[in-house]
Amino acid sequence: xxxxxxxxxxxxxxxxxxxxxxxxxxxxxxxxxxxxxxxxxxxxxxxxxxxxxxxxxxxxxxxxxxxxxxxxxxxxxxxxxxxxxxxxxxxxxxxxxxxxxxxxxxxxxxxxxxxxxxxxxxxxxxxxxxxxxxxxxxxxxxxxxxxxxxxxxxxxxxxxxxxxxxxxxxxxxxxxxxxxxxxxxxxxxxxxxxxxxxxxxxxxxxxxxxxxxxxxxxxxxxxxxxxxxxxxxxxxxxxxxxx
Length: 243
Known about the structure:
The protein is α+β, with helices and mostly antiparallel strands.
């Protein structure tokens, strides 16, 4: 069977159609298709990492201060690149919960942990704008075990449910990001052998669509008043790579 041309078309700009075809495949991929799909997801992750690094630099130049989502507002490093331990964590996730979507696997191996919660000097609503957070490795807590954390979350979610679907928590919800008591954490549904993950936030959205929406907002998902002012958004988003 000839290898599909998804990667070439993705790089050429036919991204929407490629993602549509990959999502239509579900978990039914032949070995050759699996390899090409994984290459597309790796390319997506590299582009996403470039966007993250660009937005971090631009926010800092604007005087944005990255900090914890609590009253202390301790400084936080907004981007921690994936460590050498990321592949081992991916293997553990697959053993513990079953198949992991390829977009999540690529993000874990090639991007890292992202925390955009913070304060802007002239935009008071930044905390309410649902800034991008994806923390899979837990690199902010070097002494903590994400395996123990995820296992504990799985057990807690299984209580009172059928336990067949687990939402792997990777971010506080929009209210918690703004230091307000909110709802369940955002995360990925597992097990899931699909190419693109289902990101469960305020609504369930394909992960790549979620990321594109966030980068279109300069690193923030908020809508209406809860998004960067137009001039700031233009400066943050100029030249970012579509995924």
